[in-house]
Amino acid sequence: VQLQASGGGSVQAGGSLKLSCKASGIILSSFWSGQMGWYRQAPGKQRELVAEIRSGGSSNYQDSVKGRFTISRDNAKRMHYLQMNSLEPEDTAVYYCYVGANSRDYWGQGTQVTVSS
Q1: Alpha carbon distance 86, 59 (integer Å)
Q2: Cα–Cα distance between 30 and 113 in angstroms, integer?
Q3: Mapping DSSP to helix (H, G, I), strand (E, B) and coil, where does residue 90 land?
Q4: Of 26, 32, 69, 79, which one has the fewest beta carbons inside 10 Å?
Q5: CA separation for the pair 114, 8 (Å, rounded)
Q6: Sheet holding 69-74: strands in order across?
Q7: Per-residue model confidence as pLDDT tens digits over 36-65
Q8: Exposed (0-12), middle (13-18) or buried (19+): which is 115, by Cβ within 10 Å?
Q9: What does the pLDDT read at residue 102?
Protein backbone atom coordinates (compact mmCIF):
# COMPACT_ATOMS: atom_id res chain seq x y z
CA VAL A 1 0.00 0.00 0.00
CA GLN A 2 1.28 3.44 -0.91
CA LEU A 3 -0.12 6.82 0.02
CA GLN A 4 0.53 9.96 -1.99
CA ALA A 5 -0.18 13.28 -0.29
CA SER A 6 -0.52 16.50 -2.21
CA GLY A 7 -1.93 20.00 -1.95
CA GLY A 8 0.48 21.66 0.40
CA GLY A 9 1.91 25.09 -0.25
CA SER A 10 2.47 28.58 1.07
CA VAL A 11 -0.42 30.88 1.92
CA GLN A 12 -1.02 33.98 3.96
CA ALA A 13 -2.91 33.85 7.22
CA GLY A 14 -6.62 33.56 6.59
CA GLY A 15 -6.11 31.61 3.42
CA SER A 16 -7.17 28.10 2.49
CA LEU A 17 -5.59 24.90 1.24
CA LYS A 18 -6.96 21.46 0.49
CA LEU A 19 -4.78 18.46 1.08
CA SER A 20 -5.41 15.20 -0.74
CA CYS A 21 -4.19 11.70 -0.03
CA LYS A 22 -4.49 8.92 -2.59
CA ALA A 23 -4.05 5.29 -1.66
CA SER A 24 -2.90 2.68 -4.11
CA GLY A 25 -2.29 -1.03 -3.77
CA ILE A 26 -5.19 -1.53 -1.37
CA ILE A 27 -8.39 -3.40 -2.09
CA LEU A 28 -11.55 -1.36 -1.87
CA SER A 29 -13.07 -3.29 1.03
CA SER A 30 -9.96 -2.71 3.17
CA PHE A 31 -9.97 0.98 2.37
CA TRP A 32 -13.69 1.30 2.94
CA SER A 33 -13.46 -0.25 6.41
CA GLY A 34 -10.36 1.64 7.44
CA GLN A 35 -9.84 4.69 9.58
CA MET A 36 -7.78 7.46 8.05
CA GLY A 37 -6.61 10.94 8.80
CA TRP A 38 -3.93 13.54 9.00
CA TYR A 39 -1.10 14.26 11.39
CA ARG A 40 1.27 17.19 11.33
CA GLN A 41 4.71 17.94 12.63
CA ALA A 42 6.09 21.41 13.12
CA PRO A 43 9.83 22.05 13.49
CA GLY A 44 11.01 21.04 16.94
CA LYS A 45 7.66 19.57 17.89
CA GLN A 46 6.17 16.11 18.09
CA ARG A 47 3.87 14.78 15.45
CA GLU A 48 0.26 15.44 16.42
CA LEU A 49 -3.11 14.28 15.22
CA VAL A 50 -5.02 16.90 13.25
CA ALA A 51 -8.14 15.03 12.16
CA GLU A 52 -9.36 11.52 11.54
CA ILE A 53 -12.39 9.95 9.97
CA ARG A 54 -13.78 6.49 10.57
CA SER A 55 -15.41 4.07 8.18
CA GLY A 56 -18.90 5.21 9.13
CA GLY A 57 -18.00 8.81 8.41
CA SER A 58 -17.70 10.07 11.96
CA SER A 59 -14.69 12.26 12.59
CA ASN A 60 -12.77 14.03 15.28
CA TYR A 61 -10.42 16.98 15.28
CA GLN A 62 -7.70 18.51 17.32
CA ASP A 63 -9.22 21.35 19.31
CA SER A 64 -7.10 24.02 17.61
CA VAL A 65 -8.52 23.22 14.16
CA LYS A 66 -12.17 22.65 15.01
CA GLY A 67 -14.40 24.87 12.91
CA ARG A 68 -11.59 25.59 10.46
CA PHE A 69 -10.60 22.19 9.05
CA THR A 70 -12.83 19.54 7.52
CA ILE A 71 -11.81 15.97 6.81
CA SER A 72 -13.59 13.90 4.20
CA ARG A 73 -13.14 10.68 2.27
CA ASP A 74 -14.06 9.25 -1.11
CA ASN A 75 -13.94 5.49 -0.84
CA ALA A 76 -14.53 4.86 -4.53
CA LYS A 77 -11.44 6.91 -5.37
CA ARG A 78 -9.49 5.58 -2.39
CA MET A 79 -8.81 9.15 -1.33
CA HIS A 80 -9.24 11.34 1.70
CA TYR A 81 -8.95 15.07 2.07
CA LEU A 82 -8.34 17.85 4.52
CA GLN A 83 -9.92 21.18 3.72
CA MET A 84 -8.13 23.86 5.71
CA ASN A 85 -9.69 27.29 6.02
CA SER A 86 -8.76 30.35 8.05
CA LEU A 87 -5.19 29.15 8.21
CA GLU A 88 -2.96 30.52 10.93
CA PRO A 89 0.84 30.70 11.18
CA GLU A 90 0.58 28.07 13.92
CA ASP A 91 -0.69 25.63 11.29
CA THR A 92 2.70 25.65 9.59
CA ALA A 93 3.99 22.08 9.55
CA VAL A 94 4.57 19.03 7.44
CA TYR A 95 1.26 17.21 7.09
CA TYR A 96 1.19 13.43 6.87
CA CYS A 97 -1.74 11.34 5.79
CA TYR A 98 -2.36 7.84 7.06
CA VAL A 99 -4.72 4.96 6.47
CA GLY A 100 -5.36 2.27 9.05
CA ALA A 101 -6.19 -0.98 7.33
CA ASN A 102 -5.19 -4.65 7.37
CA SER A 103 -4.28 -4.30 11.08
CA ARG A 104 -1.62 -1.68 10.46
CA ASP A 105 -1.12 1.97 9.62
CA TYR A 106 0.19 3.19 6.30
CA TRP A 107 1.76 6.62 5.92
CA GLY A 108 2.24 9.12 3.13
CA GLN A 109 5.41 11.04 2.53
CA GLY A 110 4.26 14.38 3.96
CA THR A 111 3.41 17.68 2.36
CA GLN A 112 4.61 21.07 3.61
CA VAL A 113 2.11 23.73 4.63
CA THR A 114 3.51 27.19 5.35
CA VAL A 115 1.30 30.00 6.61
CA SER A 116 2.75 33.49 6.78
CA SER A 117 1.39 36.31 8.90
Answers
A1: 20
A2: 29
A3: helix
A4: 32
A5: 8
A6: 2-6, 17-24, 79-84, 69-74
A7: 999 999 999 999 999 999 998 999 999 999
A8: buried
A9: 84
